[in-house]
Specification:
The chain has 156 residues and is mainly beta. The protein has strands spanning 13-19, 35-48, 60-69, 72-83, 91-99, 102-110, 121-128, 136-144, 147-155. It is globular.
């Protein structure tokens, strides 16, 4: 039995704000930090229970979401997190956001493997491809009543 709920940019519903310049969404130098609001919806969630039943060190989950802007699909994400202990211990995660022909990669620590406490947590943006090849910054995720809200602040 899965002891916890899905995690990610959004479980069922939520919002992501991308602050980045891209040719598709910017037309002038003043648009360099124009935010792009992205909604994420859960596609799949798989929990891997390696040891004793329930969350223990080494257990992991993989979650995939679809990303859209104003109801129009723009990409997807994939998260992989590994537990450092039980559900109250930290989890270490890596993520890939696929936006058209470009990706943003991120890594970080969630304060609880079951992030049900509403506390924000941060991922470092570790890189990207194509228009995000020089990406840096962070992703700040906070649990909400309907899932998760995240701010993805990308500097290029």
């Amino acid at each position: 039995m899965n002891p916890f709920t899905p995690f990610g940019l959004a479980a069922i519903a939520g919002a992501v704000t991308l602050a980045a310049w891209t040719p598709a969404f910017a037309s002038a130098p003043s648009d360099l930090r124009r935010p792009l609001n992205v909604d994420a919806a859960l596609v799949s969630f798989d929990f891997v229970d390696l040891g004793q039943p329930g969350v223990t060190a080494g257990d992991s989950f993989v979650q995939a979401d679809t990303l859209s802007v104003d109801g129009r699909p723009v990409g997807s994400d994939l998260f992989h997190c590994v537990a450092a202990g039980d559900e109250t211990a930290a989890g270490l995660c890596d993520a890939v956001l696929v936006l058209g022909d470009a990706t943003i990669t991120a890594a970080g620590r969630i304060p609880n493997f079951e992030p049900a406490d509403g506390q924000p947590f941060r991922f470092a943006i570790t890189g990207g491809t194509n228009r995000y090849r020089r990406a840096a910054g962070e992703i700040i995720v906070t649990e909400t009543a309907t899932g998760y809200t995240a701010i993805v602040d990308v500097q290029i």
